[in-house]
Design a protein that fits this description.
heterodimer, A: alpha/beta, Rossmann fold, six-stranded mixed β-sheet, four-stranded antiparallel β-sheet, 8 helices, B: mainly alpha, 14 helices, 3% strand
């Protein structure tokens, strides 16, 4: 874990019309650090992810990426700056092969006619899934033929491939079985080892305690607190989430 | 070796059905209609010539369907484009007529496209409305009269002409399918069309300009219909409001049988060509069988129904 802040959010405020979704949220994230964002449904976790990834812009407050103030117009601007999101619903095109998903929107081309370089995309995809140990039949497999764990593996591998700074994970294992969850968690550990900053939303406190360095609790748009994972326990986090002491 | 086997895996049932259907119907007519001249070179060439406009329309429709949209108005675009071109050719040289015909097609496609992509109206309803709108415009343009096309360069290029013994309509078919296939399978735009039809949200968050893709596919549809209008005008040496009128069902059937998914994300330009030839063969065979027009329609409808049912069989897995 290095010392500089990859992401720093100060006094983020977001309102949709009169409804306040996030009020006064501040958080710093270092490279190689995993911070878990927890809270009940409707606490504002996904809204926060969308603000960081450029889908929404905050009503007020600053987002600094590597110390630079950012104001992403849309998700592709965030991606161009090394921020990748793994969405709850995966954002994969099911009827396309794995390698086309890996390069979705960023397809490699060759020659004067700018034709797709399928061979290279296939090869790079294969190298990537091998490196991350995502077990799929081949880089040419169609997404719809893969299991939930394999798909999530692809989505995370894609984020790893393109993220240079920050990966946001929105419930990455919500739909997975025990063994598949373990594989995805191993994958997240690998991202951490690559010195990426990771912000993860999860409903499973067990998972949060396994993976995270710090835990940030949201309740109804308010930031309740941030704890070092090592120096807190489930009881404290649960009472912070529910507001019941 | 691994490449071959992955190719084979990729060749799924829906994509393959058109090849078998094509072969089966070809063989059936070849045997039963041998004495009626089905297999003569002249008859087979005729089938290709007659299906050329439908094939071009089918190529355009593959793009629209793959992006999750549909165009029902292409038949009306064919008529308006052909008439505009024919009228222009009466007072202007050939290139102007061609540009007018294609331009009108692309412009109507853009009109559809803007309504769909930026006003976010469903393409089914938009093009259902513009189908009627432009069918009416085609009728009023020349008061139901047909417009003769006397320009020999034009009729040669888009109709009866030949290049080294290859009929121009065959060349247009090859060009349309070849270029369409190249764009569809081998460019970023083609990949974005498929992604947009497959999962618009995924496409959007991946930085693909989904609205622009929707606009472009409907413009491609319009442009292809415009070219089909030129081919009709060239072959028949006249333009009339009825051109393209009866092509809607045939072209949609050709595209679906050719392995393109109605709900987007998957398709084949080469499959659409085979589907179109299959429809042409069917037409031709039923006429050679001396069936009454009403019976032809019934048999054609039933065969299309079977073909579509078979090619859509396992989409709901």
């Amino acid at each position: 874990m290095s010392d500089h802040d990859v992401l720093s959010l100060t006094n983020i405020h977001k309102a949709f019309g009169g409804v306040v979704a996030i009020e006064d949220f501040s958080l710093n994230l270092k490279a190689g650090e995993v911070v878990a964002l927890v809270g009940d449904n409707g606490a504002g976790k996904s809204t926060l992810i969308k603000i960081i990834s450029g889908v929404y812009s905050p009503t007020s407050g600053d987002i600094l990426l590597d110390g630079q103030k950012t104001d992403f117009r849309d998700a592709s601007a965030a991606r161009a700056n090394g921020v990748e999101v793994v969405y709850q619903d995966l954002a994969l095109a099911d009827q396309q092969p794995v390698y086309m998903n890996m390069f979705l929107g960023r397809e490699l081309t060759k020659g004067p006619l700018k034709l797709l370089d399928k061979a290279r995309m296939r090869q790079e995809t294969q190298e990537l899934v091998d490196e991350l140990d995502v077990r799929i039949p081949s880089a040419s497999s169609t997404i719809s033929d893969l299991s939930g764990g394999q798909r999530q593996g692809i989505a995370i591998a894609r984020a790893t491939h393109w993220a240079s700074k920050l990966v946001l994970l929105d419930e990455p294992t919500a739909a997975l079985g025990v063994a598949e969850t373990a594989r995805v968690e191993a994958l997240i550990e690998q991202l951490k080892a690559k010195d990426l900053a990771i912000l993860i939303i999860s409903h499973s406190l067990d998972q949060v305690f396994r993976l995270s360095d710090r835990i940030c609790v949201l309740r109804r748009g308010k930031q309740i607190g941030v704890r070092d994972t090592k120096s807190t326990d489930k009881n404290e986090i649960v009472s912070m989430i529910t507001g019941v002491a | 070796m691994t490449r071959v086997s992955s190719r084979l895996q990729g060749l799924d049932f829906q994509q393959a059905v058109v090849y078998f259907g094509f072969l089966a119907i070809f063989l059936f007519f070849a045997v039963t209609l041998y004495d009626d001249g089905f297999l003569t070179q002249r008859n087979l060439t005729n089938i290709v010539l007659q299906t050329a406009p439908a094939t071009i329309m089918a190529v355009g429709l593959v793009f629209a369907l793959s992006a999750g949209e549909i165009d029902l108005s292409f038949g009306s675009i064919v008529a308006v484009s052909a008439l505009s071109c024919a009228v222009a050719l009466q007072s202007f040289p050939m290139p102007v007529g061609v540009l007018v015909g294609l331009g009108v097609g692309v412009a109507i496609g853009a009109f559809n496209g803007v309504l769909v992509a930026y006003l976010k109206l469903p393409s089914f309803l938009v093009t259902l409305a513009t189908m009627g709108l432009f069918a009416g415009i085609a009728r009023s343009m020349t008061n139901l009269r047909s417009v003769p096309v006397m320009n020999d360069t034009f009729t040669g290029l888009f109709g009866s002409g030949k290049l080294f013994t290859v009929p121009s309509l065959v060349i247009w078919t090859c060009l349309g399918v070849g270029i369409g296939h190249l764009i569809y399978r081998h460019t970023r735009f083609g990949a974005h069309v498929l992604a947009t039809g497959d999962n618009p949200r995924a496409a959007q968050v991946s930085g693909i300009k989904v609205a622009r893709v929707r606009l472009y596919v409907l413009m491609i549809c319009g442009g292809c219909a415009g070219l089909a209008g030129l081919l009709y005008a060239g072959r028949l040496q006249a333009a009339k409001y009825t051109l393209g009128e009866s092509d809607l069902m045939t072209v949609i059937a050709a595209v679906i049988v050719g392995g393109t998914a109605l709900n987007g994300g998957k398709g084949s330009v080469v499959g659409a060509l085979l589907g179109s030839l299959l429809m042409g063969m069917l037409n031709n065979g039923l006429i050679l069988m001396n069936l009454k027009v009403s019976d032809q329609m019934i048999v054609r409808g039933l065969i299309i129904l079977i073909a579509v049912a078979v090619s859509l069989r396992d989409t709901s897995r």
